[in-house]
Amino acid sequence: MSERIRAHVFVSGTVQGVYYRASTRDAARERGVDGWVKNLADGRVEAVFEGDEDAVEEMVEWCHTGSRRADVTDVSVEYGEPAGVESFEIRR
């Protein structure tokens, strides 16, 4: 098992109103990744992923495509120390 890490992600493009948050939640749960996802007022989606390094990296890669209806134009990632988030939720 690899080290637990945290990735703070901002996704730009057509990512609101296309099931991006629900798809992110489902993908994270499938990989055993904790964290949250929410829409931002500027049209981006913000997410935090915490978990096994390999699984978190899979989620970061997943964000480049996202849900089937999304059109992702940019993904920025900042890495930091895990904050002990448990489970995965959609924030409003």
TrEMBL record:
Gene3D superfamilies cross-referenced by the UniProt entry: 3.30.70.100
Residue ranges constituting the Acylphosphatase-like domain according to the UniProt record: 6-92
Top EC class for this record: hydrolase
Residues at the active site: 21, 39
Catalytic reactions on record: an acyl phosphate + H2O = a carboxylate + phosphate + H(+)
SUPFAM superfamilies: Acylphosphatase/BLUF domain-like
EC number from the UniProt entry: 3.6.1.7
GO molecular function: acylphosphatase activity
Record keywords, A-Z: Hydrolase
Family affiliation: Belongs to the acylphosphatase family.
Stated name of the protein: acylphosphatase
Annotated organism of origin: Salarchaeum japonicum
